[in-house]
Amino acid sequence: MTKNSSKFVFVILFLSFFLSGCNQHPKINIGEALTKSEEEFKKEGIECVSAFDGEKIIKFRLLLKEPPTNEEATNQFKKILDIIATHSNNNDIWDIYNADFDLSYEDNVIYEGKKDAGNDLIVKAH
Questions:
Q1: Total tally of structural domains belonging to the chain
Q2: Which PROSITE patterns does the UniProt entry name for this protein (predicted)?
Q3: Backbone conformation region of residue 118, classed left if phi is above 0, alpha if psi is from -120 to 50, else beta
Q4: Which one of 8, 13, 55, 85 is most buried, by most CB atoms within 10 A?
């Protein structure tokens, strides 16, 4: 191998390792995780809808049959976080993605939950 071809191979290998290390995106199928999470809530008799913006924001809404207390709403949001994390097969999902949740009763949003990547869940009543 000539000196120039050795340098070329070294540069290609270096760039490959550098780019693969810098561009490590989580291997999470968000669509599949959301679909499975919806199915889990529907088995419990809770209607829900979810969406993903394709980049960083997950949205999830539960349509409740009766209004929860503040404590029940907070627990419901934590349950959503846990279920989505379980179905994503990645415990670090909430260090990567943001989430906007809400609980709806009789066509009105009564609680909102917000979880920014790496931060704690924030719950607000309407």
A1: 1
A2: PROKAR_LIPOPROTEIN
A3: left
A4: 85
Match 């409740």 to its residue by tokens.
64
Q: With contact defined as beta carbons under 8 Å apart, do 60 and 76 qualify? A: no
Q: Which of 67, 62, 65 is nearest to 48 (CA)?
A: 62
CA-nearest of 104, 120, 118 to 59 is 104
Q: How far apart are CA 121 and CA 75, in angstroms?
A: 11
More confident residue, 85 or 26: 85
pTM: 0.77
Contacts of residue 126, defined as CB under 8 A and 6 or more positions apart, other chains included, come to 108, 109, 110, 111, 112
Q: What domain range is 48 assigned to?
A: 30-125
> 10 Å Cβ neighbour count for 47?
13
d(CA 63, CA 107): 8
pLDDT of residue 21: 46
